Amino acid sequence: MKTIRYKTKIVLLLFVSLILGTTGCDDEYLEPKPLSFFSPENALIDAKGMYAALTACERNMRFEWSGDAAPIITELVFSEVCVEGTTDKPGPAQNLNIQITPTSQLNHTDFNKIGWYWYEGYKGIKYANVVIDRIDDATYKDEAERNAVLGSAYFHRAFRYYRLTQQFGDVPFIGREITAPKLDFYSTDREVILRKMQKDMEFAAQYCLDNVDRGRVTKGAAAHLLTKINLALGDFDKAIASASAVIDGGVYSLMKSPFGQVPKEDGDFLTKQGIVRDDVIARLHGWQNKAIAANKEVLFMVLSREDLVDSRLDLQIMRNAVPFWGVSNSNMLYTPDGFGPGTADIANQEIKLVETFGRGIGRARGTSYHTKKIWDDANDLRRKKGNWINMEDLVYNRANLKTTSKYYGKPLQLYRENGQISTTDTIRNWFGWPHYKLYSPDPRRTQPQGGSFDWYVFRLAETYLLRAEAYWWKGETALAMADVNAVRTRAGAAPYTDISKFDIGTILDERARELYWEEPRKTELNRIAFLFAKFPNKSYRGKSYSKATFGTSNFFYDRVMESTDFYNKGVKANNGQEYTMSPYHVLWPVPQAAISSNTQGLLNQNYGYDGYGNNVPPLTAIPPEDDL
């Protein structure tokens, strides 16, 4: 960016010099001149310029996993793996029955990021459409280069539409660059949009390349996204074929042995406990190893680096997803003999906890489903001590306890000697977490929150689990189980052998173990919910579903209810909010601002929200002029 700004200044200076230096009566100098050569017409002239335009898509994609109250938290708390753990404010998404409406605050750190997905989704579509619409305005070295660029643009557009159609259902389709104000959008049937995306991604999976820089769209990523779209449409044979193209293509492979560098935290707490995190899972998710050439599992990732000051973006993942374990100014965690605070999350303590685990505030609070119930094998490396941290793995480290409590340096305990709970907030302060995934150095803070590092978007492990779903829907359970076992055994867990106990829930359990903070959990639950409604002959643990009653009875809601220890159980946070959820939360509300500003058209609202009664039938075809 500095280079572009510098060049722009030079252009402006030259332009002014030409005006001031003009003599004679020629009026040519009065004609408008561009202030910069960096217009689309001048920049989008070759493949390099087109890829440069797509960096806007790549850049914005990072925002989902980064920053305080990262949007991915909203995906997680509308699922069975997490709830919103911020208990000292009334706004966070906990009492969903009251808090989630079309006119609520839907895009704010202290509330939720539903609106972020709507507006950011259409931003990504806008950026991709610029390249798609102008694809033949550029000159390429050959047809293959042109098709690779177009395939990459198709990927970014399809990525956003896949998410929007699972999160919001029927949404407006925008198929080309908009160059003038437009206020007459209408909702389009979600399957119509997905069919268009399927066609585009079949092209992308054919023409995108694998030998590209990290952060760019690969052929593997295109086929992976195509698999998700094939699944969403119920085209299970096509889903198996597109997943198999990645799994069996010879380019990608599951990492089954340690590679790259040994993960090492800035603090030495785990080392002093005799814990060495030197296994394939720790290496796979170590920040140093994600983007290296030796990593053959990554299909697509977003990049952010500490040394790229102008573009770095902090993950803040330890702040968001680690418990609020260390409070310096209030008695949140007591020692068993009643002294508190028992822990300190400030730097340079004798026992260095914050350097190792970061200063968490517990926004994404893992449920017992994710932190306990799904772990069915003691040898699973993802649950290995050191890779996974339970609160009892921490110790009382506040310095003044050395002279006041016998528990200094001893493991945390949930109960005091008198039988009382040792913390004033078990929601926010007491749950386990996957340290191997959440740790990232934060050299600019003495209380680390998670620095600026790369993040996986698609990995081959998920491709196996997607193919397992396709096999399950086809009734080929043995093949589905084999794909799940490929992921399980890589992590050191024993393979499943009992087909009679294997169902879609088994696959979702493995997804929860393997893909935490990578997968958009609600999106994937919704994809499955739509499929159960589409195929009422299929049932989940004895219950079938239909399109007609989707807003009142659906797999998404039943799945969360069978797993939750929070929603609709009478659980209240310290802020007074009760955790509630209803079946209509299967779809998020379309933000009212988007509906109200569309003055010459009509965007449909989803069932259960104000405005639903104004709906009209969605469009069932994409106009030929938008079919780009």
Can you walk through the features of this model?
There is one protein chain. This protein is mainly alpha-helical. Among the domains are: 1-38; 316-451, no CATH class. The protein has helices at residues 2-20, 40-43, 47-61, 72-77, 96-99, 114-133, 143-167, 190-207, 219-233, 236-247, 269-272, 280-285, 317-321, 354-357, 368-373, 426-429, 435-438, 460-473, 477-490, 504-514, 521-534, 555-563, 592-597; strands at residues 82-84, 171-172, 187-188, 298-302, 364-366, 388-389, 433-434, 455-459. It has a two-stranded antiparallel sheet with strand order 1-5. A two-stranded antiparallel sheet has the order 2-3. The longest helix is centred in the first third of the chain and has 25 residues, at 143-167. The protein is globular, with a radius of gyration of 26 Å. The model is unreliable at 1-30 (pLDDT under 50).
Keywords, please?
two-stranded antiparallel sheet; 628 residues; 38% helix; disordered N terminus; mainly alpha
Counting H and I runs of at least 4 residues, what is the number of helices? Answer: 23
Q: How is the biggest beta sheet arranged?
A: 2 strands, antiparallel
Rounded mean pLDDT is 93
Biggest sheet strand line-up: 1-5
Oligomer description: single chain
Fraction in helix: 25-40%
Distance between the termini: 31 Å
Low-confidence runs of at least 5 consecutive residues:
1-30
By secondary-structure content and strand pairing, the structural class works out as: mainly alpha
Give me the Rg, rounded. Answer: 26 Å
How much of the sequence lies in strands comes to under 5%
Backbone shape: globular
> How many beta strands in the DSSP annotation?
8
